From TrEMBL:
PROSITE patterns for the chain: TRANSKETOLASE_1 (PS00801), TRANSKETOLASE_2 (PS00802)
Key words of the record: Isoprene biosynthesis, Magnesium, Metal-binding, Thiamine biosynthesis, Thiamine pyrophosphate, Transferase
Name of the encoding gene: dxs
Biological pathway: Metabolic intermediate biosynthesis; 1-deoxy-D-xylulose 5-phosphate biosynthesis; 1-deoxy-D-xylulose 5-phosphate from D-glyceraldehyde 3-phosphate and pyruvate: step 1/1
An example molecular function term from Gene Ontology annotations: magnesium ion binding
Protein's UniProt name: 1-deoxy-D-xylulose-5-phosphate synthase
GO CC annotation: cytosol
Cofactor or coenzyme needed: Mg(2+); thiamine diphosphate
All copies of domain Transketolase-like pyrimidine-binding, residue ranges: 333-498
Length: 651
């Protein structure tokens, strides 16, 4: 355990001196000759490496500290990449990356064009399945096992899934199917009792029983020893013995749920005792059919701040090793916090308000709300679909559910949005966080598709604020709106530091706001793109062009009156959004003009092109796709040939 109080130089010196084994590991093949004692030493070196590297880069420290021995044992016993290692979510794949030749790239972790924070096929042949969203590993394992058997191959298929991810509906669908097909595959359940926040749900309590059911473990071991003493037996006696063991197991409950799903259940074992892990994985390797290995781990193992608070250290920004103090940017509050505070203000006056989160109470800014209103914050686990339909029913019964969800994770609940919420026109409020680029989590987490997948659904209103004060106004608007579903989306960035109205007033639905007058074209900007538009306008002003800027704060419904007026003025128009161009807000403007029979009105959409944008900073991601003031200014100038000639006299 890396103890607090030692200086950074101690840690760095020890780290360099003590990586004697790690320096020799350039691939899994270098593990095969190690003794168990060396594996133990190597696990310590890997832990120290993670603590050191992530103190500079940040990242998912606690999840990875919890799977050091497990990952080592997998690569020691099995043969990746022939054997398929499938990591659920993939945020706990740093050790896998260290062992598969990428330890020297960890200074670039989650940086632009650097090492991805999730499994990434383009990085290594050992990365056979990508994720970022949870609960997909068992379905992937089933597919790979099916393909293997159809192709007549014989490789292993091994999924590593956490206790949190196991609460995802997809995982249960896959368990059900795997148990039916009875293919040879291994599921390793990494049970650390934590999702990001403490895990929730009946499954979590069930796993807790198994964890604590020590006497089951003892009884099972004693029984096994007894059975082993009986000379090689066949026939009836063997069947009786097996039945007795199963009934004992049933009596003592452990693992029976998985066995009912058709798995052989093995465990639980201490996931930090490499000998236990090696033994149980060897056992599992000889099981015919699907096997579930239950491994008990500690999230943050080996670094006391992370062990003490694995919720905070699930995903961490750079920190000081010796103190565990994170390096935090000082500045205006992030939109998430403004949302959380405003929700409390609203809930104090309206007891219909119920917050619903699919396993993200911290990330969604609901911790203070939960503290103040413990019965009005519902964490459903990693279950976005369930959260959506449950919110619909809450609204059906006259409550005011606030479905707080990251844009990217709302993708999981698309049918619930359409089929249960919008079609029934229910008063559900969507608080869509992480709208736009998200930075280091990269393409699996950007919130760039919610405008396209929401705006064409009837009955929904969609808003995005220009600043944190307007976010508060939008939340007020949403709570007072009783004509169906309404969404407010906001980014993973800090606000502008504007003054906050004490009593924010609701907005007129569908009305945009001109924030800058001008006659040389107009920029319709959504959310934080207003800052980009203002910078572009300043660039154009130096060339004698005054551009109008409109805060297009309602993505749906459009401000049709303003669109018609802008067309009538013949103003060249740029629509600026940090979201997919295809089907986005800009598309809806084009559709509007077409459907109104207004042809030839020049509209240029500037958004996220039809590509996946990888990890980096939000600034780098915007630069990559051209969401910059320079690009906007250039595009507007090319759209204004006549005007340019008049103003500058140049052709
Ligand atoms: C569909 C989806 N919803 C939410 C998340 C956010 N998320 C990332 S990791 C995580 C918790 C995973 O818990 P567990 O599987 O137990 O892994 P651990 O971090 O404990 O190792 C959550 C909720 C996600 N990645 N995907
Ligand atoms: C792996 C995962 O999906 C979460 O840990 C996610 O990285 C959280 O994102 P934020 O850091 O934006 O809360
Ligand atoms: Mg967990």
């Amino acid at each position: 355990m890396l103890h607090l109080g030692r200086t950074r130089t101690d840690a760095v010196r020890e780290s360099e001196e003590s990586n004697v084994l790690l320096d020799q590991i350039n691939g899994p093949q270098d593990l095969k000759a190690l003794t168990t004692a060396q594996l133990v030493q190597l696990s310590g070196e890997i832990r120290q490496f993670l603590i050191e590297k992530l103190s500079v880069t940040g990242g998912h420290l606690a999840p990875n500290l919890g799977v050091v021995e497990l990952t080592l044992a997998m690569h020691y016993l099995f043969d990746s990449p022939d054997d398929k290692f499938i990591y659920d979510v993939g945020h706990q794949s740093y050790v896998h990356k260290i062992l598969t030749g990428r330890k020297d790239r960890f200074d670039t972790l989650r940086k632009y064009k650097g090492l991805c924070g999730f499994v990434k096929r383009s990085e290594s042949e050992h990365d056979v399945w990508e994720a970022g969203h949870s609960s997909t590993s068992l379905s992937a394992a089933m597919g790979m096992a099916l393909a293997r058997d159809l192709k007549g191959d014989s490789n292993r298929v091994i999924a590593v899934i956490g206790d949190g991810a196991l609460t995802g509906g997809m995982a249960l669908e896959a368990l059900n199917h795997i148990g039916h097909e009875k293919k040879n595959l291994m599921v390793i359940l990494n049970d650390n009792e934590m999702s990001i926040a403490p895990n929730v749900g009946a499954l979590h309590h069930y796993l807790g029983k198994i964890r604590t059911d020590r006497h089951y473990q003892k009884a099972k071991d004693d029984l096994q020893q007894l059975l082993n003493k009986i000379p090689a037996i066949g026939g009836k006696l063997a069947k009786t013995a097996e039945r007795f063991k199963d009934s004992l197991k049933y009596l003592l409950v452990s693992g029976i749920l998985f066995e009912q799903f058709g798995f052989t259940y093995l465990g639980p074992v201490d996931g930090h005792d490499i000998e236990q892990v090696l033994d149980i994985l060897k056992q599992a390797d000889h099981v015919t059919g699907p096997v579930l290995v239950h491994v008990l781990t500690v999230k943050g193992k080996g670094y006391s701040p992370a062990e003490a608070d694995s919720f905070k250290w699930h995903g961490i920004t750079p920190y000081k090793i010796e103190s565990g103090q994170v390096v935090k940017a000082v500045g205006p509050p992030v939109y998430t916090d403004v949302f959380g505070d405003m929700l409390i203000e609203l809930a104090e006056k309206d007891d219909r308000i119920i917050a619903v989160t699919p396993a993200m109470p911290g990330g969604s800014g609901l911790l203070k709300f939960a503290y103040k209103f413990p019965n009005r914050m519902i964490d459903v686990g990693i279950a976005e679909q369930h959260a959506g339909t449950m919110s619909a029913a809450l609204a059906m019964e006259g409550l005011k559910p606030v479905f707080a969800v990251y844009s990217t994770f709302l993708q999981r609940a698309y049918d619930q949005v359409v089929h249960d919420i919008c079609r029934q026109n229910l008063n559900v409020i969507f608080a869509i966080d992480r709208a736009g680029f998200v930075g280091p989590d990269g393409e699996t987490h950007h919130g760039v598709y919610d405008i396209p997948f929401l705006r064409h659904v009837p009955n929904i209103v969609i808003m995005m604020p220009k600043d944190e004060n307007e976010l508060r106004r939008m939340m007020k608007t949403a709570v007072e709106y009783n004509d169906g579903p309404i969404a407010v989306r906001y980014p993973r960035i800090a606000g502008l530091g504007v003054e906050l109205d004490k009593d924010p007033q609701p907005l007129p639905i569908g009305k945009w706001e001109t924030v800058r007058e001008g006659d040389s074209g107009v920029i319709l900007a959504v959310g934080p793109m207003l800052q980009v538009a203002e910078e572009a306008a300043e660039l154009l002003k130096r060339e004698g062009l005054n551009v109008q800027i409109v805060n297009a704060r309602f993505i749906k419904p459009l401000d049709e009156q303003m669109l018609l007026a802008l067309a009538a003025e013949g103003k060249r128009m740029i629509v600026l959004e940090e979201g997919a161009e295809l089907g986005g807000f800009g598309s809806s403007v084009l559709e509007f003009y077409s459907l109104k029979g207004i042809y030839g009105h020049p509209v240029r959409i500037i958004g996220v092109p039809d590509i996946f944008v990888e990890h980096g900073t939000i600034k780098e991601q915007r630069q990559e796709v051209g969401l910059t003031a320079e690009r906007v200014a250039t595009e507007l100038k090319t759209m204004l040939p006549r005007l340019m000639k008049r103003v500058t006299g140049q052709p």
